[in-house]
What does this fold into?
Amino acid sequence: MTDIARAVDALRAGELVAFPTETVYGLGADAASPDAVRRLYEVKGRPADHPVIVHLAGAAQLDEVGRDVPETARQLAAAFWPGPLTIVVRRNSERVAAEVTGGRDTVGLRVPDHPVALELLASFGGGVAAPSANRFGRVSPTTAAHVRADLGADVRVVLDGGPCRVGVESTIVDLVGREPAILRVGGVSRAAIEQVIGRECVLHTTGETAAPGTPASHYSPRCDVEKVEAEAVGARARDLSARGRRAGLLVMRPVPPELPGELVVLDAPVDVEEYARVLYARLREADEHLLDVLLVVVPPASDGLGAAVADRVCRASH
It folds into this structure.
């Protein structure tokens, strides 16, 4: 029996599987099974009122798991699926358990851009509810080894698809309200979404409309994370060292000059795309180095992956 077949059998039996996507690894359960979804929340330690995204094999399933699907959803699906965009529409209660959405009438849907995920979803046939495959609030996994380290035997099957290509979670756009709204910044930029739908898309990334991955404190390693400007790194590192705190640095190249020798400089990404791809791995490495504080210089960007990196670092630093 292939690993995909084992994973499909596990899903149909109400068990949990982990699978790769282009963003992060997901912890999957049958979206139509209340018992399976409750088990998912229990293993992850996720609050019951935090909705979970449902993953699909293709855009043709939009009308199966959603209802009253607007034309803007079809436009965005045609433009960005498979890919790192989640579309919020009204939920078909016959295909998506209320436990998936915390009882909401809406559900976030996406088609991941990874061959292993797509094969799993096509073989399973239904929607798979899947948050990131880690304990709630901790650093998202971008390799199968991260999943095994975080969740161990709580997952029946872990499908290994190598390191994730994008590295930060999908953008979430809500199409149910009076105006399109981005609930989480991610792998698809606001500008790209607005170009497709031909109208402004407002940002609602905090407060009551917040979506998966948007609590003020999230994506957190065990060490403290502190945002710092590049020109202030040296002084801040020396201050931490004087106070007996072991510090590290994550920054995009070029690395600032004249840093104290005791500062642990993590392997620096060369551009924003690599920064997003390695961010969560670097946060995990900070704990492996037994750092007390990780200083992070975020890349300069107001939209797209740069904005997603800045958002994740901000939440990790709370």
About this structure: The chain has two domains: 3-169, 224-316. DSSP finds ten helices and 15 strands in the chain. The CA atoms of residues 167 and 279 lie 7 Å apart. The chain has a mean pLDDT of 94.
